[in-house]
Amino acid sequence: MAQNIDAPNIDPKKLAKQNRKKIYEQINKERLDKKKAKQEKRKKIHEEYLQQNSEIDKIENKCKQDIKDKLAFFKQQVVEKKMDKKTAKAEFKAYRKERINQFSVEEQNILNLSSDELKQSFSFRMKRWFFGVGKEFSRVTWIGGKEVLKDFGIILLIVGIMTLIFLGLDYLIGIIPKK
Questions:
Q1: How far apart are CA 142 and CA 123, in angstroms?
Q2: What is the pLDDT of residues 134-154, one digit of tens each?
Q3: Which of 30, 63, 65, 117 would disulfide-bridge 103, Cβ 3.0–4.6 Å?
């Protein structure tokens, strides 16, 4: 048998192992690249989300301030006797409703400016939902300690009355002779 001088004596198992190692390294590199791209996409979406929320918060705060200013203006008009209380109240309600509608339109304009990816992102929708829940939660008015104690007393009273009723019925049923 003649040996080829140019071709080194390579173990096929070693060669296969090296090839597998190269393939695994390439696959891991592709995975890392996909992971980085996904993280960058999430970061971009999160930045857009934060930017939208900051813009919406600015508009909401401006709307609230406008409403407070208008309320102060109408109160001043009533104090100076330039307007009666009923008219001032009606005009303020109309202004408030109009201003809130304007805010809703401005908010929708901001939300419509978002990218399609942002709208389709499930995580964005969940964050937005939780953000809305947080806003609603901040608008909740909690009852004070006196109301809690009063309600607790009423519950105890009702439970006591029901207990007496059932004990009385049980006693009456127990007195009736069985045949």
A1: 31
A2: 888 888 888 899 999 999 999
A3: 63
